């Protein structure tokens, strides 16, 4: 069952007569990592700013944990942690003092909790050093630790992997996945790194020019058995295989050195058995995954500001 | 309470930087400087102050009888004579520079330095968070914006008090060690509207500090408003310093030209001491009038700050 942690309804932002965000509608569900994908200037940061009360909404509302951000910001944001754009912290304070500072804004300082989040992001060694001495990756991790301090139910991260090297990106991805798995927290994360989103997210919302153009399930779990998919098959003799499959009413297309078959998990074993029985040698069977990147580029073609 | 914790945060951010410590060092330096000047310039106080006072009266009397002395000077001389006579009549020694309390009196006269520091702190406490980019993280916490702003202003006032008390206590300790309490006077004599008054020196110090503190509350509120409005501390500092240190001159110049609105300017009303131990710089002003004017300005400064802060989108 899906429980929505946040509901974004008709959310709009207008500055002057420019509509930065136009009537967005989507939910963020418990335990999911929802990607927010769009080209530069699409309105991702603007949307997130409104969600956390940094910007006033021009229209619509955001509901988090049942509280309206517009009407009851303090309650709504009680269980939200986040980073918007760069994780700017007080450079003249130590990482630890930064965490003390932000924790004290919500309630009394709790050293145990600070230790926990520091451990979670692996900053134990440097936590007493001044943030001035931190690398970008360490700052990002401190930013995430800060966001996690008050046991949020929703984590809002604006390009958390911005400027990180592949190893840093992989680390953050692992933290986030572990986090959702272990705590059931919902994560809303923006990026224009498409490949990164594919590896991280359960679902993505695509935004262009302030409007949502698509929502994609990346890891469909239910009714996957009967879902149509494309399979690439290398076999010998290829022509014979085409004849056999066409006879059975299977949609098949012959490429230069392989066949593309439209089928489903449920039917694939039968097809396989049939071909083998008819004396066709099968070398590889591969599921063709239309890359998110291809679809994204196809959809956002010319969508850049 | 939440606001107390927020003030604690503001103080942490202030104390973990060098700025405030440099200010404290400068305050120590200014006390030392006053000490050096006192030691170098003033002769040690006379053994028999009564004799000196009597001499002064006689000399002043001669001056009064001379022709060609302007009236303003004569008024001053007359007041001086009255004070001297009062001291003799009531056996109250003057507050000599080279006694513990006289030294304190001299040092607190230099507390304009603290006003300068408070202007700098107040003008930066909001705008620096924008400059550092930390305002985003602060304002996305589940805290009402007005509480964030209030705690910043209260932290300024708290530290203003801290610096003021620090100056006073330091002056007292240095004065006590260097000069001791021999011959120090515990009574303060002053003239107001032609009448001589007498009060405890400590009351005088307290009232002086209080009046000064009220002035700081006002100029800090002004700096705070400008910096919140324009997110620019340089502008706020420059404007506030100008008003703080040129304000009274501007006031007197305008008053000289008979401008009636002068008394409604906030910076001619900030010195409440003028009513307590003297007479107002502009005729017709009373302490009640000044307090009301200050209140009105204070509400405006704070109102503008809070409204803009509450409404503003944080980019
Ligand atoms: N304060 C503002 N006033 C006017 N326009 C603005 C303002 N802030 C942002 N914009 C515009 O709104 C649009 C959306 O900006 P936003 O920062 O939300 O995009 P984004 O999706 O986060 O882009 P990026 O991937 O580059 O971070 C941009 O065209 C930007 O120029
Ligand atoms: Mg952005």
Automatic annotation (TrEMBL), chain A:
Domain (ABC transporter) ranges: 6-234
Family as reported in the entry's similarity comment: Belongs to the ABC transporter superfamily.
Keyword hit for Nucleotide-binding: yes
Molecular function GO labels: ATP binding; ATP hydrolysis activity
Keywords: ATP-binding, Nucleotide-binding, Transport
Keyword Transport attributed: yes
Official protein name in the record: ATP-binding cassette domain-containing protein
Source organism, top-level taxon: Bacteria
Automatic annotation (TrEMBL), chain B:
Transmembrane segments: 20-39, 107-132, 153-181, 201-224, 236-257, 287-309
One Pfam family cited in the UniProt record for this chain: ABC2_membrane_2
Keywords, ordered alphabetically: Membrane, Transmembrane, Transmembrane helix
Molecular function as annotated in GO: ABC-type transporter activity
GO cellular component: plasma membrane
Superkingdom, natural source: Bacteria
Protein name from the UniProt record: ABC transporter permease subunit
């Amino acid at each position: 069952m899906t429980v929505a942690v946040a509901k974004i309804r008709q959310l709009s932002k207008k500055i002057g007569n420019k509509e930065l965000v136009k009537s967005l509608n989507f939910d963020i569900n418990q335990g999911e990592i929802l990607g927010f994908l769009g080209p530069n200037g699409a309105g991702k940061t603007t949307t997130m700013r409104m969600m956390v009360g940094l910007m006033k909404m021009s229209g619509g509302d955001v509901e988090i944990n049942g509280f309206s951000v517009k009407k009851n910001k303090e309650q709504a944001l009680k269980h939200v942690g986040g980073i918007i754009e760069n994780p700017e912290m007080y450079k003249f304070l130590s990482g630890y003092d930064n965490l003390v500072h932000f924790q004290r804004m919500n309630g009394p300082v709790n050293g145990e909790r600070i230790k926990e989040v520091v451990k979670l992001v692996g900053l134990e060694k440097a936590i007493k050093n001044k943030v001035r001495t931190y690398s970008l990756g360490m700052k990002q991790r401190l930013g995430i630790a800060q966001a996690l301090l008050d046991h949020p139910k929703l984590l809002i991260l604006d390009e958390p992997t911005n400027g990180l090297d592949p190893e840093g990106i992989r680390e953050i991805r692992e933290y986030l996945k572990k986090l959702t798995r272990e705590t059931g927290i919902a994560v809303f994360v923006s990026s224009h790194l498409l490949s990164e989103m594919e590896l991280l997210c359960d679902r993505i919302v695509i935004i262009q020019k302030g409007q949502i153009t698509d929502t994609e399930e990346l890891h469909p779990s239910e009714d996957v058995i009967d879902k149509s998919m494309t399979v690439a098959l290398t076999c010998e003799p290829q022509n014979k295989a085409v004849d056999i499959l066409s006879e059975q009413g299977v949609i098949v297309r012959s490429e230069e050195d392989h066949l593309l078959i439209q089928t489903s998990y449920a039917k694939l074993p039968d097809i396989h058995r049939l071909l083998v029985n008819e004396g066709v040698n099968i070398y590889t069977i591969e599921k063709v995954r239309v890359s998110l990147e291809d679809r994204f580029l196809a959809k956002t073609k010319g969508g850049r500001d | 309470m939440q606001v107390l914790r927020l003030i604690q945060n503001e103080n942490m951010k202030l104390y973990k930087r060098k700025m405030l410590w440099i200010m404290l060092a400068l305050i120590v330096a200014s006390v030392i400087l006053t000490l050096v000047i006192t030691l170098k310039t003033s002769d040690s106080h006379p053994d028999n102050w009564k004799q000196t006072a009597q001499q002064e009266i006689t000399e002043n009397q001669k001056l009064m009888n001379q022709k060609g002395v302007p009236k303003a000077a004569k008024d001053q001389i007359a007041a001086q004579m009255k004070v001297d006579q009062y001291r003799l009549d009531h056996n109250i020694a003057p507050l000599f520079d080279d006694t513990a309390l006289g030294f304190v009196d001299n040092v607190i006269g230099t507390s304009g330095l603290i006003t300068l520091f408070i202007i700098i702190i107040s003008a930066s406490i909001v705008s620096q968070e924008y400059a550092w980019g930390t305002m985003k993280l602060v304002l996305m916490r589940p805290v009402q914006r007005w509480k964030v702003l209030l705690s910043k202003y209260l932290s300024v006032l708290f530290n203003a008090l801290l610096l003021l008390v620090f100056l006073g206590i330091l002056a007292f300790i240095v004065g006590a060690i260097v000069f001791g309490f021999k011959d120090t006077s515990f009574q303060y004599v002053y003239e107001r509207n032609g009448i001589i008054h007498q009060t405890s020196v400590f009351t005088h110090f307290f009232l002086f500090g209080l009046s000064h503190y009220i002035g700081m509350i006002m100029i800090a509120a002004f700096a705070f408003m400008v910096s919140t409005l324009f997110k620019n501390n340089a502008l706020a500092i420059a404007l506030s310093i100008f008003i703080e240190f040129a304000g009274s001159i501007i006031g007197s110049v305008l008053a000289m030209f008979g401008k009636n609105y002068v008394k409604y300017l906030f910076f001619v009303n900030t010195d409440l001491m003028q009513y307590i131990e003297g007479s107002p710089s502009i005729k017709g002003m009373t302490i009640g009038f000044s307090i009301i004017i200050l209140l009105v300005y204070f509400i405006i400064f704070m109102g503008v700050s809070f409204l803009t802060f509450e409404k503003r989108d944080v980019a």
